[in-house]
Amino acid sequence: MTGTSTAVSRLRAAADGANRWVVLVVLCLSLLLVALDATVLHVAVPAVTEDLRPSAVGLLWIVDAYPLVCASLLILFGTLGDRIGRRRVLLFGYALFGVASALAATADSPGVLIAARALLGVGGAMIMPATLSILRQVFPDRRERALAIGVWTAVAAVGAAAGPVVGGFLVEHYWWGSVFLINIPLMALILPVGRWLLPESRGEDDGPWDVLGALMAAAGVLGVVLGIKRIGGEGLLDPAALAPLLVGAVLLVLFVRRQKRRTHPLIDIAMFSRPAFTTAVGCIVLAMLALVGLELIAVQYLQLVLDLSPLETGLRLLPLTFAAMAAGATGSYTLSRVGPRRMVGWGFVLTAAAVLLLTLMGQHDRPVLLTVGFVLLGFGLQSTLFGAYESMLSEAPAERAGGAAAIGETSYQLGAGMGIALLGSVMNAAYAPGFARLHEEGVPTAAGAAASHSLGEAYQVADRLGGPMGDLLRDAARSAFVDGLHVTLLVSAGLLLLGALAALRLPRLMDCPPVKAACREPSPAVPEQSAGPGSSGSAPRREVPPLTPPDGAGRPVPRPARREPAEVTGSGRAAR
Questions:
Q1: Is 80 exceeded by the pLDDT of residue 357?
Q2: Has residue 452 been placed in a domain?
């Protein structure tokens, strides 16, 4: 374990003083770019459609390729970082992200743009788990780590919510490719800064990297998400929809069985036996499903129903950003006061209330209603994500930080991809019936069928028809979209309330005494003193003062042994 001990000592040196906060700034800048790229294209979809003329399926892939590829590769690159170094994987991800951004900005066909978005997903898969696993190592103190995670999740929310604002400004003043071009100078700056400032870290020396297992996980996640997408568009019984879903599910089952048998697994499956860890992962999926799916639909509503410009659309979404920032800034205090269960559960309830409030939206602009709804939505979802991420990361052993971060980020991206697929499918299913009787009023059947694909396509068909028939088709499409939006919001609210029920399995309190010293991880010398000659088992460890800090009344407060990160025990495993 010499390599692990050396890495740990370097990390502890980096964590002293203000250095760890500088590291946090660099990690947050990395995450900001990745999160920004996940949503910056949303307001540019109409411009991309007009310029490249992609098919309906092609347009979905332009939007979905990034989150789907990123989600499928997070486990691969997260566990690879545990083996070869998280900073090394992170820096390589920076370089690939910059190259893919240049390719996307200059794309002249839907195929090239889809390929570039897929490469961006590969770069994002290298960056996202590395930022979270380095954060886990640099902040061993749980209270400080909670604050750092609050900043980290707030930056993720800011990036996702600021994407439409940045994209709207660029599309309005330049061309749609500029939404990708902004990544290049930022990556050119952050690559040398990251190489200079970020500490290198690895997990314990866990033997050879399971390449086959990593590929099985990647193919399994991709198959499951593809199956969900196709079921939404083609129906549950369609063989083309069932095939990838079944193949993906089988691969994931085989991956889990393989990890259980291996001496040095990629993912410690035992982590899922902890209710808090499993529940936190599920809550992340549900929260992101609601956020990204609703945001994409909201962007279409603001632009196509209310006829706002891309920049105005982005500005309308700013309240969501500010609310998310406020929730992230106060998240550490809230978590310590109310505990993970209440923070995550009530975050879901608040988000569901916001979604139900937004069902009052109609064909006319109601800015106050939208602002209140977006504020509640941003604050509720960010509170949920903060509590879930902190619980998940604190439950994982420190030497498995890369694998745990990969699981969390896979959940994040999987939820985002499923949100677009699931809520988009619900939206399409509720939107299409609005055109069933238009032929009775003189609208050509072919025109009605084409308009039922999407609201944007309906407007194009209406413009070609012109006259009273065109106006009739346009009004029917707008009304059908609003009706579909209401159905989608109700479905989303139901899923969010299920998340609130699931949050009841989280710990009631943050497992950390209020005294700050009690939350400090023991120094490497403590286990050596408590594990000397004549000591055996875990009972003598509980009597060591650093592990049993006094509470406010001077009584000793035992500290759960499972909270000790593996690197401080000197044996590479947490004390049991």
A1: yes
A2: no
